[in-house]
TrEMBL record:
Gene3D superfamilies: ESAT-6-like. It comes from the Bacteria. InterPro entries: ESAT-6-like_sf, T7SS_ESAT-6-like. The lineage of its organism: Bacteria, Bacillati, Bacillota, Clostridia, Eubacteriales. Keywords: Coiled coil. This is WXG100 family type VII secretion target. Pfam families: WXG100. Residues 66-103 form a coiled coil. It comes from Candidatus Flavonifractor merdigallinarum.
């Protein structure tokens, strides 16, 4: 029924496509988080060999990005969660329509 119509409602994307994209974005998000953590670790690790004003400014800039990056990661995760929720709603609606169709007498549908 996905990709088809449910009465006046037309699904333009199949629920499985929503699940697939949410998982794809979730994997990309995890890679971004890991990369950002590695960058932070490298910046902090530079304290042992890089000293001075430029070093402090660089580490401060990296640290300042942390809050913004966490906010971005949080918002992307919200989108992942919403895609999965939408897919679940679509699947539930499809099941409800299919169940309703099964309860109708065969001689009513022309």
């Amino acid at each position: 029924m996905a990709g088809g119509s449910l009465g006046d409602v037309v699904l333009k994307v199949e629920p499985q496509a929503l699940y697939d994209k949410s998982h794809e974005v979730g994997r990309s998000l995890e890679i971004m988080r890991q990369s950002f953590a590695e960058m932070e670790a490298a910046a902090q690790g530079s304290q042992s060999y890089w000293q001075g004003e430029a070093a402090q400014a660089h580490r401060a800039a990296c640290q300042a990005c942390q809050k913004e990056a966490e906010e971005i990661f949080r918002r992307i995760q919200e989108h992942v969660d919403e895609l999965q929720e939408m897919a679940g709603v679509y699947e539930g609606a499809e099941r409800a329509v299919e169940d309703l169709m099964e309860t109708l007498p065969a001689d009513v549908i022309v």
